[in-house]
Amino acid sequence: MDLSETSPSPTADSDTEQDYDCPICQEVLKMPIRTRNCQHVFCRSCFQVAVRSQGPPRPQCPLCRSPVSEREDRATDIHQSMRKRKGKCRACGKKKVLSKMRLHYRTCRKYIQEFGPISEPRDPLPAQTPELAESSVFNRNISNPAAWNSAGRRYECPYCSLVDLSDMELVEHCVHQHHQEHSPIPTNRVKEYDVDGGKEDLFEVNQAAGLELFEGDILYDKKQGRNSIIGDEYLWPTTVPYYFEDDLDINAKGVILKAFEQYRLKTCIDYKPWSGETNYISVFKGNGCFSSVGNQHVGKQILSIGAGCDRIATIEHEFLHALGFWHEQSRADRDDYVTIMWDRIQTGKEHNFNKYNDIISSSLNVPYDYGSMMHYSKNSFRNGTEPTIVTNIPAFSDVIGQRMEFSDSDLLKLNRLYNCTRTTTFLDTCDFELENICGMIQGQDDQTDWEHVTMATGGPDTDYSNMGRCTDTGYFMHFSTITGKEGDTALLESRLLYPNRNYQCLQFFYYNSGNPNDKLEIWVREYSGINPNGTLRMIETIVGLPEALWQLYHVKLDVSTKFRVVFKGTKGAGVSTGGFSLDDVNLSETTCPEHVWRIKNFKSTMESTPRGSAVYSPRFRSKYGYTFQMGLYPNGTDINSEELGAFAYLTSGDDAIDNSLPWPCPWMQITMMLMDQNADIRKRMSNQRSVTTDPNEKLEGSSMFYWDNPRTVGIEVADEDGTTYFRGPGAGTSVYLTQARALSRDFIKGGDAIFLFTMEDISHLVASQPIPPTTNPTTPTDDLCVSIKCENDGVCVIDDAVKAACRYGIANVAIVLRKLEDLYVILWKWV
């Protein structure tokens, strides 16, 4: 039975046919009742038959074996909803009011031919009567086990040797065969809240909200005209003031701050809390995701991050609009790269696919970008099942519309538009492909050197950047411990680095093929007026046995002066057959991830894991003491196929630690990131989703708190080694990433996928952001710009209220670039 898409949901968090199907008879509910303890819903007769069949000493829920009463309360809310809602007959497709669906099934010829005559629930039978074995309430689904198997999980009966049961088959088996047992049936199913509601794209969110916005997510004043933002006066300063309104979700605030960090890492754009500047961006929780384009000079310029919009790429997308960007497919040259299928577009939405000349929307001399986060997806605003945008190169059909991260071209255009020459928090990257090894130097006070190689005795056979995919490439640095004597060292030092913050994250891949006694240490050499030659300070020793694998490491630094990073290898006692290798080194002034989960043979995992089945990460203990884990659905959840699902759960840990923690868990943001393993951190398009533990959130229909101690609200589960623990309810998304995108870029490298996790306390975001007491006076531009002459129609602007600079609007930049190209042609001919 397919429910009408426009019908309201009978519960707060679901809208599926299972909401109205009895889990016992698998038909539409008749006189529904709801159990008080576990909130499960059944037909009244089905429930009473199942309960009375159990016998003494006490009745239990047929689904989870929680204690129940034979006379539970009617589910009047569902009954009333069924009297209003319509669903489709599962056989003939006709729409009927749900409360009348059983009557329709009695006379529907197609239904009777396919499923047989419908059997109404019998009147309650006395416990242990022979009639129970013949009751169609149970036999109906034994003959059709597939109807019970939607979750995809398989279980073993805990009381006998029967195996390979679905969750519902296990329930029925235990009700019939083990009614005398009184422990919960271990189906390991916990509540999982889908924070995205199955909506992958921001345009889906806005359409569901009924928004009628220009191009789907743009606030646009027709009186002002699209040309109005062309010109440098509509750019923001490179440090943009922002204000978080009180109605903004706490999780959204945390994700916005993460988006700001990506801007700082990859561009010169920075963000600061509003301190009285005349113009600023006010971020609030509207009914969807939307923004104006460019600095509109209206003082308070609004940008909405509503429910379902708190994905990092959606936030970056909306802030790109605010910085002056239109959608990629509106470019003047778009017909060279995509074909718009006008007959497949929803009526009244055709204007969203208009294109504009290069005076209005410039490409900034950057080629058309199928991978831009500003591009529509192939199915945007479609009126059926066929795509509205067809890429002229078919291979890019599933590329357009990505909502993971900035593409290389997004960054190139943004950095050109704002004249960026460096980023804010990036320090260094090296894949060792060039002979100059990124300016690194060999240490002076050591006995041997690190070597620049493409393979090493004892391993590895390839580097990590290219994994042997390209000829004449694939270099890494190697310190051999095969020769030499115990205690010999080799120092590899980075170029000089100049920090802006007092914290950094060093990330690198490391291969250990040496002796267990060999040692790799991370040092920093800090320079000051007192020590112009630098002082060495040890940060961390990398520990671990030799393993034939490139391993990812993160090291936290806390340097505030000019410095170098030093990799110090030391030969240990004993015989070695290899040594240490380094590749893909990145250093940025960002926080390090706390935990790493590597899934080997990930493509095989996606192919072999049944739909609706999860694989679980190890449990991780955060620095705050809370223990958590991720559940990954590699082959999709029950709701969404071809999409990876990702959910975060609190779990039980050490009893003493758990008992000392505040419960419910207050305002901890858990971030689950699938790492794009590109060698350069600036070019990565990692995919992530964050959820936050709201201590006030309650389980639906219960007085229990969602993020309470897992021993209170969770279920007992077991690790592969037999260790048992409790897993609490989960929160995440069924549309984490499509399988097609998971197979793209460098999400899988050497066959493996790498997930990174953090848990951060964001309770400071609960309080209101302070409002500046007064607006800062604006510095007269004439005073600072009097000595500045801007050629090629440039405009002098005041950057950060302290510095005059020439800026060029989108059209002006295009003109300048064309002039430079003409000049290059003239010089080339002259030479």
Automatic annotation (TrEMBL):
It catalyses: S-ubiquitinyl-[E2 ubiquitin-conjugating enzyme]-L-cysteine + [acceptor protein]-L-lysine = [E2 ubiquitin-conjugating enzyme]-L-cysteine + N(6)-ubiquitinyl-[acceptor protein]-L-lysine. GO terms for molecular function: metalloendopeptidase activity; ubiquitin protein ligase activity; zinc ion binding. Residues 428-594 form the MAM domain. It is an enzyme of class 3 (hydrolase). This is Metalloendopeptidase. Keywords: Cytoplasm, Disulfide bond, EGF-like domain, Glycoprotein, Hydrolase, Membrane, Metal-binding, Metalloprotease, Protease, Signal, Transferase, Transmembrane, Transmembrane helix, Ubl conjugation pathway, Zinc, Zinc-finger, Zymogen. It comes from Bagarius yarrelli. InterPro entries: ConA-like_dom_sf (IPR013320), MAM_dom (IPR000998), MATH/TRAF_dom (IPR002083), MetalloPept_cat_dom_sf (IPR024079), Peptidase_M12A (IPR001506), Peptidase_Metallo (IPR006026), TRAF-like (IPR008974), ZF_C2HC_RNF (IPR034734).
